[in-house]
């Protein structure tokens, strides 16, 4: 079949030269056949011609095309399944891709007359030699297969590396894994780092997780009022989970600092917010500061009080005057910053929690991208649906 396809140029030339005399046609055909069958290189006693190279190339292109069709089909099928099955479909697609390419390579070598058994022995011998010189690369290749089979790391997981970098897993290749941070920075990590190193996976078993936001108030503050203010702050942030009962927001008194009572606001986050920890923490800090201010609760800072009672036989004010401190106190008070008054409209604008808006904008953008992708997949469905019909059916289907 392949040789018939590669003989198409010969047939085309035969039609072109048909109006000419028979001798010219025979000469042209013999020249084309000789060019196609001309030996270019000899490997192991086997001469490889142009038609042999063309056959091998067509087989490899066919294997790659079949792999592409299979992966696209699996991707479309995974979109119609629950989200927790997407990683399994991705792993199957990757393994089938590599398998089809290897099989295509073997068939291509067999077609051109190369003994596949000898090639296998040669590859094995080369593998032993290269294993010593390319240990790191081989380690990454094997680690990539382990990740695909074990599924301790999946597409869409939010991970934290030992370097402190955090991001979402976007792609698991045979040698490396691509992670995209919330700042839209791509980090390419060798697969061996995930297998041999320590990686924190925030969404391995469950998409929700608990977050602790520390804050402090001055000694003497009413801790019940502090708790009320912190719970109100948690309610103001839209990422807080309030159900079930065991995951409701809590306020813990965690310690007694040098200058403050140390508290923690403990909240559970939904799946969308888990992947944006820094933005979410900023949103809670903003809400906590606003809530404490409404209840007149002071956020302390490290300070030391020096009480001078007697100095050189002088008492209190006289001692301060002798040291020249009263003048300094008066100078500080005279240079105190005047209270700034804000217009009501300006204050309302400044009271907006930018971190909440930023995180919500990213969550909405992700949801719109997934909905758009689902509409496009429905539009290319086997039923031929497209346009508004496919989009309407996507909207009617419940979210996974």
Write out key terms for the chains shown.
three-stranded antiparallel beta sheet; 400 residues; 16 helices; five-stranded antiparallel beta sheet; disordered C terminus; alpha+beta
Derived structural class: alpha+beta
Helix content: 55-70%
Approximate strand percentage: 15-25%
What's the mean pLDDT score? Answer: 75
Biggest sheet strand order reads 6-5-4-3-7
| Global outline | elongated
Largest sheet: 5 strands, antiparallel
Termini separation: 46 Å
Describe this structure in words.
The chain is α+β, with helices and mostly antiparallel strands and 400 residues long. The chain is 56% helix and 15% strand. A 5-stranded antiparallel sheet has the order 6-5-4-3-7. It is elongated. The two termini are 46 Å apart.
Helix and strand topology:
Layout lengths: L1 H5 L1 H10 L4 H15 L2 E5 L2 E4 H30 L6 H26 L4 H18 L1 H16 L7 E3 L5 E7 L3 E5 L5 E5 H6 L3 E2 L7 E9 L5 H14 L13 E7 L4 E9 L1 H4 L2 H18 L15 E2 L2 E2 H8 L1 H10 L9 H7 L3 H26 L7 H10 L4
Helix pairs in contact: 2-3, 4-5, 9-11, 11-15, 15-16
Describe, in short, the structure shown.
Helix content is 56%, strand content 15%.
């Amino acid at each position: 079949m392949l040789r018939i396809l590669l003989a198409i140029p010969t047939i085309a030339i035969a039609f072109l030269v048909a109006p000419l005399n028979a001798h010219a046609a025979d000469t042209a055909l013999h020249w084309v056949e000789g060019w196609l069958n001309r030996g270019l290189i000899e490997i192991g006693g086997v001469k490889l011609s142009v038609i042999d190279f063309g056959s091998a190339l067509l087989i490899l292109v066919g294997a790659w095309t079949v792999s592409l069709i299979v992966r696209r089909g699996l991707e479309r099928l995974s979109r119609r399944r629950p989200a927790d099955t997407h990683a399994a479909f991705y792993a199957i697609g990757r393994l089938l891709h590599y398998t089809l390419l290897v099989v295509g390579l073997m068939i291509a070598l067999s077609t051109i007359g190369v003994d596949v058994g000898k090639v296998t022995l040669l590859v094995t011998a080369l593998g032993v030699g290269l294993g010593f010189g390319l240990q790191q690369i081989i380690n990454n290749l094997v680690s990539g297969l382990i990740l695909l089979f074990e599924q301790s790391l999946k597409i869409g997981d939010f991970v934290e590396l030992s370097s402190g970098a955090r991001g979402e897993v976007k792609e698991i290749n045979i040698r490396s894994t691509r992670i995209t941070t919330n700042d839209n920075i791509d980090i390419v990590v060798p697969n061996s780092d995930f297998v041999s190193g320590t990686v924190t996976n925030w969404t391995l078993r469950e998409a929700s997780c608990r977050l602790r936001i520390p804050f402090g108030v001055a000694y003497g503050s009413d801790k019940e009022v502090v708790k009320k203010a912190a719970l109100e702050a948690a309610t103001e942030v839209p990422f807080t989970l309030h159900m079930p009962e065991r995951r409701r927001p809590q306020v813990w008194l965690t310690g007694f600092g040098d200058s403050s009572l140390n508290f923690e606001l403990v909240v559970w986050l939904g799946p969308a917010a888990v992947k944006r920890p820094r933005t979410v923490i900023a949103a809670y800090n903003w809400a906590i500061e606003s809530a404490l201010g409404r209840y007149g609760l002071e956020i302390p800072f490290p300070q030391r009080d020096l009480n001078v009672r007697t100095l050189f036989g002088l008492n209190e004010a006289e001692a301060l005057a002798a040291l020249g401190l009263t003048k300094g106190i008066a100078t500080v008070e005279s240079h105190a910053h005047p209270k700034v008054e804000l217009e009501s409209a300006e204050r309302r604008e400044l009271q907006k929690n930018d971190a909440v808006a930023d995180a919500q904008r990213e969550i909405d953008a992700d949801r719109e991208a997934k909905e758009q992708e689902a509409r496009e997949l429905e539009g290319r469905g086997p039923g031929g649906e497209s346009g508004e019909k496919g989009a309407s059916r996507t909207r009617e289907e419940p979210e996974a």
